[in-house]
Amino acid sequence: MGSREQKRAALYEKLQQLRSATHSTAVNKTSIIVDASKYIEELKDKVERLHQEVATSSQISNPLPMEVTVETLEKGFLINVFSEKNCPGLLVSILEAFQELGLDVLDARVSCSDNFRLEAVGGDNQGKHDSIDAQVVKQAVLQAIRNWSQSSEKE
Questions:
Q1: Assigned architecture for domain 66-154
Q2: What is the pTM of this model?
Q3: What's the pLDDT tens digit per position in 18-27?
């Protein structure tokens, strides 16, 4: 008889965990299970939407086979952009992105003949260095590439 009570207590505990995990306010078993089922469906829908967003953003985020890396230096960033194709006008878009961030270009090497290669050291950030990090710089460069790509497609 003790084992039956233990099973009932264990079942009750599991239902309470399920109720808590699914944010259910139900009190009986059936309602808790129905709420959990609805919650699972909502999570499935959310995962599907996120998969679609990731697929869409990955198609947009790299319109050309282009490599972008940003490393944090002691006082600034080392930014590398490389594409196997020539990209007329891309340098201007990237420099505008630096300007919007307030990032001064301290040193740069650029090749735009057969391919596009930019190696730049950006620093000072006009006294705002703490407010941005390498990820912010990389996102700004990627956005500049997207903007450049969209504007060059229209031409």
A1: 2-Layer Sandwich (3.30)
A2: 0.54
A3: 999 988 999 8
